[in-house]
Design the sequence.
């Protein structure tokens, strides 16, 4: 288990991570979901021991990473956000070097390299220099370096940024396989669909603070909404706001230039009752879409804004 | 051991990029070869191709052409007799200059009439046509002076040449007598000369030795030291590049401490730098440079590599980015190389700069190589130099490693 206890990190006046605590249970995939600049990378950097926190501690399998760094790091596999591979070396060279840092050598190292490259579909490019790879291939090689030594804990910092859908699916499949084999995974992302599909539990982070933590159903329940109505039209008007607010059983989550997001609160009148009231309110609505509660609506409910890149 | 893994990885990167590595190692050799070609050849090697268009075809013009083709001048002058086609050859840039002796030149000279020698210069060349022009000018002055001093005798010769019959003994004797009395009159004026020019080349023992060892041996050590500094620059730059590319950050997520990383990098920098220097030395030996006692040379190579690595690592530990590091270290290397004697022998430098030389590792290394190569010294003779180089290497390597380690731990790298 990874225990994060009251971690805090400031860069001059900016509080990047503000007193956060959570646990990553053995064998689970915990997603850390938040927009860019929310504090995800700073958090993961402190957990893997490359950034010293101002306060708080990280306990991995009952060892403090800042007290016994090498012991803890041997159990960690880290896949950073930036593609951290040596482009003038081959894929095999990169993995061979990385494996040697974990004490792997000889036939065992070769076997692991072949196995890992096969899992991400790069076996046939093992002898090619990395500079000839596409962005997606480099990302997959980056993932290989985190998996090569079969770590007990896998920390991934937005490993699918900037790659094509096929490579993304491949990476997500490999992470699922690792988790199924017993690896504990901490996965940071700003893609809600990834968090929904991949993670057993999700921590929503914004401005360096954990706003909510739980399974997807727990989070959506916590937001207290049954459905979300997304309205399109010239809605940025005070009178419109007043009329929307007057519709019983609803709550305004967001109001933009030409759109509004309205939550239908659970326990009140249902969608079938509310929708006609909204349409009859003469608001100039041009389009309506109905969404089931998801992480987007949870994030809006928690922060008052949408989760964007 | 992580440090050894990092060392192996770095060496593999050099092997995987053979062209880049070869260029890095070959640069000082190429520079030394250029220096040897530029400074190694003397004036004797220069040959000026001159076209001689002699329309006069008389004795005097033949004498002038013959003088230009004399043994000594012939080494520097390639005189090619041509006709009018010489002008076309000049248009094609096939010679440095064309000298035209016009028809009737000898007649006019002997008769004391004004005459002209034309020089056509090749505009594509700068210095060689100038030499021809100056030479022709000197020749014209000599002929003019001769014409004035021996005017009666020259007119007499002209008269004799105009007659159809062979000159009588009396006429020739009269001419000889006139020339003789004219020379006697001049003897008091021109002999002995009031001022004589004597050129003496003062050579030190070292220079005499240097002449024996060849020009490459004078320049290669300094340039090899400069090349070693550039090798160390390339190797230490990797630390900043590792940081900027996120590789160092990733590396530190593995069971690798900042100390492991820096130890690996230091080993790699020193090894690559020493190997590069050793290769340059071997290549120099293949080109005929006698480096001196092998043990002393090997120790000096190691000391220089250590000092170069330490210095560059220290500078890199002070800068914020790879670009800053590149700029600063390049300036330092060039200035040190100039001050330290890589581009010119130290005794050729202005006096006020010489004390500054001792502040550069290029000086201490080059001076030691000069001691081994030019002065026939051994290990004992270069001990002070080795002491300075090893101490500088250890101090800078230690300080640079400490500063980089502190920055890595603070998260600044």
Sequence:
């Amino acid at each position: 288990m990874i225990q994060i206890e009251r971690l805090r990190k400031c860069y001059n006046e900016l509080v990047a991570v503000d007193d956060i605590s959570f646990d990553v249970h053995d064998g689970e995939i915990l997603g850390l979901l938040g927009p860019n600049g929310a504090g995800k990378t700073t958090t993961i950097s402190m957990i893997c021991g490359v950034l010293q926190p101002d306060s708080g501690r990280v306990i991995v399998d009952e060892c403090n990473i800042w007290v016994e760094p090498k012991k803890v790091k041997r159990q960690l596999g880290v896949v950073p956000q930036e593609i951290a591979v040596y482009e003038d070396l081959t894929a095999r060279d990169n993995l061979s070097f990385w494996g040697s840092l974990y004490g792997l050598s000889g036939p065992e190292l070769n076997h692991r390299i072949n196995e890992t490259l096969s899992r991400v579909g790069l076996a046939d490019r093992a002898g090619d220099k990395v500079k000839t790879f596409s962005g997606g291939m480099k990302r997959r090689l980056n993932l290989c370096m985190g998996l090569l030594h079969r770590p007990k804990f896998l920390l991934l910092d937005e490993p699918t940024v900037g790659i094509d859908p096929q490579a993304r699916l491949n990476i997500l499949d490999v992470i699922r396989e690792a988790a199924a084999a017993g690896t504990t995974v901490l996965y940071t992302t700003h893609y809600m669909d990834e968090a929904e599909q991949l993670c057993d539990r999700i921590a929503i982070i914004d401005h360096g603070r954990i706003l909510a933590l739980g399974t997807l159903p727990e989070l959506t329940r916590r937001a207290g909404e049954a459905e979300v109505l997304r309205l399109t039209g010239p809605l940025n008007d005070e009178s419109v706001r007043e009329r929307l607010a007057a519709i019983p059983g609803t709550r305004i989550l967001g109001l933009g230039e030409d759109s509004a997001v309205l939550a239908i609160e659970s326990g009140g009148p249902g969608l079938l009752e509310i929708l006609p009231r909204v349409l009859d309110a003469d608001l100039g609505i041009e389009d309506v879409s109905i969404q089931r509660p998801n992480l987007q609506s949870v994030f809006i409910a928690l922060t008052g804004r949408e989760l964007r890149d | 051991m992580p440090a050894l893994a990092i060392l192996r990885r770095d060496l593999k990167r050099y092997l995987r990029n053979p062209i880049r590595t070869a260029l890095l190692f070959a640069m000082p050799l190429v520079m030394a070869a250029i220096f040897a070609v530029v400074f190694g050849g003397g004036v004797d090697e220069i040959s000026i191709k001159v076209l001689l268009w002699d329309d006069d075809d008389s004795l005097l013009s033949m004498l002038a052409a013959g003088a230009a083709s004399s043994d000594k001048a012939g080494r520097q002058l390639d005189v090619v007799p041509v006709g009018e086609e010489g002008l076309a050859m000049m248009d094609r840039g096939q010679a440095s200059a064309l000298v035209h002796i016009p028809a009737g030149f000898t007649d006019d000279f002997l008769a004391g009439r004004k005459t002209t020698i034309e020089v056509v210069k090749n505009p594509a060349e700068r210095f060689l046509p100038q030499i021809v022009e100056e030479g022709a000018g000197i020749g014209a002055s000599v002929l003019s002076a001769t014409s004035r001093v021996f005017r009666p005798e020259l007119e007499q010769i002209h008269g004799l040449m105009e007659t159809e019959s062979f000159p009588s003994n009396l006429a020739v004797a009269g001419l000889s007598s006139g020339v003789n009395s004219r020379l006697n009159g001049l003897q008091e004026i021109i002999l002995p000369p009031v001022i004589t020019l004597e050129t003496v080349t003062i050579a030190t023992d070292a220079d005499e030795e240097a002449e024996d060892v060849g020009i490459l041996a004078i320049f290669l050590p300094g340039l090899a030291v400069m090349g070693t500094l550039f090798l160390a620059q390339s190797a230490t730059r990797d630390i900043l590049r590792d940081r900027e590319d996120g590789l160092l950050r990733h590396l530190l997520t593995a069971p690798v401490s900042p100390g492991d990383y820096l130890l690996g990098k230091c080993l790699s920098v020193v090894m690559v730098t020493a190997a590069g220097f050793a290769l340059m030395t071997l290549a120099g030996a293949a080109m005929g440079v006698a480096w001196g006692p092998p043990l002393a040379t090997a120790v000096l190579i190691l000391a220089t590599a250590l000092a170069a690595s330490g210095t560059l690592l220290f500078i890199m530990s002070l800068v914020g980015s790879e670009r800053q590091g590149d700029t600063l270290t390049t300036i330092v290397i060039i200035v040190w190389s100039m001050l330290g004697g890589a581009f010119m022998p130290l005794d050729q430098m202005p006096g006020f700069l010489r004390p500054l030389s001792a502040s550069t590792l290029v000086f201490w290394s080059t001076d030691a190589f000069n001691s081994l190569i030019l002065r026939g010294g051994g290990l004992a003779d270069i001990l002070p130099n080795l002491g300075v180089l090893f101490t500088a290497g250890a101090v800078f390597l230690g300080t640079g490693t400490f500063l980089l380690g502190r920055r890595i731990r603070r998260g600044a790298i």
